Amino acid sequence: MRRDHVAKDCSAALKELRMKDLSDQKKIAVLIDADNAQYAKIKSILGEVSKHGHVITKRAYGDWSSDYLKNWKTILNELAIQPIQQFSYTTGKNSTDSSLIIDAMDLLYAEKYDAFAIISSDSDFTKLSSRLRESEMYVFGVGEKKTPVSFRNACDDFIFTENLGEPAIPKAQKQNGCPSITNGTEEVPREIIDTLLSGWLQYKDEDREDWANVAPVGGLLKRIKPDFDPRTYGVTKIPELIAKVGLFEMTKFKGKGLVNIVAYRPKERA
């Protein structure tokens, strides 16, 4: 009998621990504007959003009676995404947006979520994103690079769909068995370089010869430019991006435990 009680206590403790781990994560509602999203990217998008928390609600909005959305059926079933039907009552008017916005506000007032992920390349959700942030919700936006800058900047974190999925590998590198991360890269803009410089001025440590920890600078980049993603520039991490710019030197310091602190500072001019 005592063993049974011990087993039950252990089982209850493990269950409580799992629930605690779950509660420590952001609870995310994913709302998909199917009229302005790529069904082929949805699996990669959900994988990316899931890195930031626990996806509780997944809904996709559109007129599912139209031929335009017929290719969505398989992915909706496979990923257990709830399709929300919204008929197009008037030609040229997008009633899907209104349905998504109303549901977002209902979910907000339910007070069960910590974050929203809005999957669309449509600027019509700019005001919704701003309103959710005013209510202290964390807002992810996911869309193509053509997404208007107003919507991108209204989010806490905007992710380009072009950066998701498997990177293309040139034939020459496929033969050598070497993956490539240079496909579709862009030049690092002056805005990011200036932010790296201002971040260095803000976070440099005079006791460590003016080296600045990269970690808080990464947060600064996201706050200033919500659509910032190192993958846009052909690298996977911020230290790689800083090294690519060529204006900074890099080093590492011993941190707590096994952690190494990556730091940078401008190169001295000759």
> Which outline best applies?
elongated
Encode the helix/strand succession as letters. HEHEHEHEHEHEHHEEHHEE
Uncertain stretches of 5 or more adjacent residues: 17-22, 167-184
Give the total of beta strands: 10
The CATH superfamily of the largest domain bears the name 5'-nuclease
Share of helical residues: 25-40%
How many DSSP H or I helices?
Answer: 10
What's the CATH architecture of the largest domain? 3-Layer(aba) Sandwich
How much beta, percentage-wise?
15-25%
Q: Work out the radius of gyration.
A: 22 Å
CATH class designation of the largest domain: Alpha Beta
Task: Give the oligomer, counting copies of the same chain as homo and different chains as hetero.
Answer: single chain
CATH topology of the largest domain: Rossmann fold
Mean pLDDT across the residues is: 82
Structure report:
The protein is α/β, with parallel strands linked by helices and 270 residues long. It has two domains: 25-163, 5'-nuclease (Rossmann fold, 3-Layer(aba) Sandwich), CATH 3.40.50.1010; 190-266, Nucleotidyltransferase, domain 5 (2-Layer Sandwich), CATH 3.30.420.610. The protein has ten helices and ten strands. A six-stranded parallel beta sheet has the order 3-2-1-4-5-6, sandwiched between helices. Helix 8 (190-203) packs across helix 9 (214-224). The longest helix has 22 residues, at 2-23. The N and C termini lie far apart (79 Å). Mean pLDDT is 82; it is low at 17-22 and 167-184.
